[in-house]
Amino acid sequence: MKYYLIAGEPSGDLHGSHLIRAIRAEDPTAEVRAWGGDLMAAAGATLAKHYRELAFMGVVEVIRNLPTILRNERFCRDDIAAFQPDRLVLIDYSGFNLRIAAWAKPAGFHVTYYISPQVWASRSSRVKRIRAYVDQMLVILPFEADWYAARGVPVTFVGHPLLDVVREAESNGARPQDAEQVVQERRTIALLPGSRRQEITVGLPLMLAAAARHPEHDYVIAGAPAQEESFYAAIIAGATAPPRVRVVMNATYQVLQSAHAAIVTSGTATLETALFGVPQVVVYRGNWLAYRIAKWMIANRIKYISLVNLVMDAPVVPELIQADFNPANLAGHLEKIIAGPLRDRQLKDLQLLRERLGEGGAAVRAARLITSS
């Protein structure tokens, strides 16, 4: 059969690559075309568009780049129509993918959504579009299955794909508990400032300024695949930075395996860090207007912004948002997770989180449902 996958960011590229391999294992004759990145291409997909061309963050950025976004949508519709896939698989990337679904289902294509958009957090009215235009919703967080089922959406919980990714990384290197023992002396702190240029430009200088208040540690910045090392070097040069800081490109999991603690921009990376057993402080600062709009849309539907706290339904990791994300405040929270009772408590909670997410095999279960539906 023919499969068309759409992922619009690095995490989608990662999970899409595992899904492609699982699909090809179930269907050896599979022909796969995709929007994604280098990982999906390496897994056997022919790329129609790279996610680097799609990274627009926040309301202001979206409005500024609206002509490009509309051109991309037209190209995507035309490309799907030309390819005529048996299965269209949408991976997260909600705004774009839901618009494609609204076109694809009436056009006669079978639509699977793998990794749900977080409509349970904001814009819950979008569930009506999902119910109308998605044939199969495959979710990766335990509470999502009940949420969708209560709203009449065909849904299956397949498990979280990061469990397999983390276990694979662990099998190829030091396990988190081994890494913890090794780094006690040197205290390496990981800085994960995000993947998009805008969020890195805003957040990384604040992370570095906080790190500079604890100059006794080593700091490693996990460079995102879509960025150049020179971009990070320029930010470091213009910031108040600790004496020992370096950038490691395209090796986030290796960075986390040797980290004693981490500062992480809100997003998928918070859960990745947690699954490696690394205590963290979660941060977020965005455009003022975009943040006010997002806060209005979320209203009182969710209590937390990090996936760790959402899954656990408790404040396992501290969250510093907007004005609270400042060097002095962040430095104080960082000190508490480097040593002491708050660190010990977070380590225990992170182990419980890993157990709550269940077993691995999400991509395999998803692939079986996609190929057999």
What does the model show?
There is one protein chain. By secondary structure, this protein is α/β, with parallel strands linked by helices. It folds into two domains: 2-160 and 359-372, Glycogen Phosphorylase B (Rossmann fold), CATH 3.40.50.2000; 165-356, 3-Layer(aba) Sandwich (Rossmann fold), CATH 3.40.50. The chain is 50% helix and 17% strand. It is built from 18 helices and 13 strands. The chain has helices at 10-26, 38-42, 58-64, 66-83, 94-104, 127-133, 142-149, 161-171, 176-183, 197-211, 229-237, 252-257, 268-275, 288-298, 307-312, 327-338, 341-356, 362-372, and strands spanning 2-7, 31-36, 46-50, 87-91, 111-114, 136-139, 155-157, 188-192, 218-223, 245-249, 261-265, 280-284, 319-321. It has a seven-stranded parallel β-sheet, sandwiched between helices. The chain has a six-stranded parallel β-sheet with strand order 10-9-8-11-12-13, sandwiched between helices. The protein starts with a strand and ends with a helix. This is Lipid-A-disaccharide synthase. Keywords: Glycosyltransferase, Lipid A biosynthesis, Lipid biosynthesis, Lipid metabolism, Transferase. InterPro entries: Glyco_trans_19. Its EC number is 2.4.1.182.
Descriptors:
Rossmann fold, alpha/beta, seven-stranded parallel beta sheet
Q: Could you outline the blueprint of secondary structure elements for this entry?
A:
Elements: E1 2-7, H1 10-26, E2 31-36, H2 38-42, E3 46-50, H3 58-64, H4 66-83, E4 87-91, H5 94-104, E5 111-114, H6 127-133, E6 136-139, H7 142-149, E7 155-157, H8 161-171, H9 176-183, E8 188-192, H10 197-211, E9 218-223, H11 229-237, E10 245-249, H12 252-257, E11 261-265, H13 268-275, E12 280-284, H14 288-298, H15 307-312, E13 319-321, H16 327-338, H17 341-356, H18 362-372
Parallel strand pairs: 1-2, 1-4, 2-3, 4-5, 5-6, 6-7, 8-9, 8-11, 9-10, 11-12, 12-13
Helix pairs in contact: 1-18, 4-5, 5-6, 10-16
